[in-house]
Known about the structure:
mainly alpha; 78% helix
Amino acid sequence: MKRYFIHRLLLLLPTLLGAITLVFVLIHLIPGDPVDVMLGETAGAADKAELRRSLGFDQPLATQYRSFLVNLAFGNLGRSLYEQTSVATIISARLPATMQLALCAMLMAVLISFLLATMAAKRRGGWIDRSALVFSLLGLSLPNFWLGPLLMILFSIQLGWLPVSGRGGLSHVVLPAFTLGLGMAAILTRILRASLLHVSREDYVQTARAKGLSERQVWLKHMLRNALLSVITIMSLQFGSLLAGSLITETIFSWPGIGRLTVQAIQTRDYPLVQGCILVIAASYVLINFLTDILYKIVDPRITYAK
Length: 307
């Protein structure tokens, strides 16, 4: 297991380097000049040239990329072109909001999916099972950019039960967390239901019932635990999707997180800030997948990493 973990840790570096390189190239290929955004198109050519020189934009792309990698190796993400503040400081101020939203969305998705999937697997073919399948279909079909405004109109504007936007108390996170977590809940419901139905036909489940264990013990100790492997895989992949999907959700609900910050940085052509935000999202995605491999061993001791 130790060799496997070291091997996986070494693979993190080229993965992150590939993500950094791709983002750097794509950001610089986007039409538009950040100097025009900062000074305005009516600024003089001399002023634009001076600002472009001070920011290093007059250097070749390869030179800019090399400087970025050197600074990144020393933990320096650069300075925001628009806010003239350290990128690391800006991201660290916004990151807790995004993590709060992502964790609340995941918790909501897990609670909904485990409840629906368990009830559907127990009553296969019944109305609860059919309702769970319809829910999973709708959850996968409704896009965030449509569901978010719909929930806002219904529960905030018409009923007045929840705040329209912003970050504050617990009531502020309900609508964005549900908007972000609905798709994940739909996927988990379908996957967990299928896993439970598959596990229910295994011999060790029948043996557990024959030994006189209660139905609750059979479900919790034998069926649910062994059905979690596929669910954990989907959750790890979907967590990265939550961070990526937060760009739309945070913009809709004016949630002050990394997603909204990324959109604002793209609009202002703030290259260092965009690169820093994407780097944080990519690093979180890779780290979650690494931790998932460790969690496999905890859930199912039969898994071995020996070659």
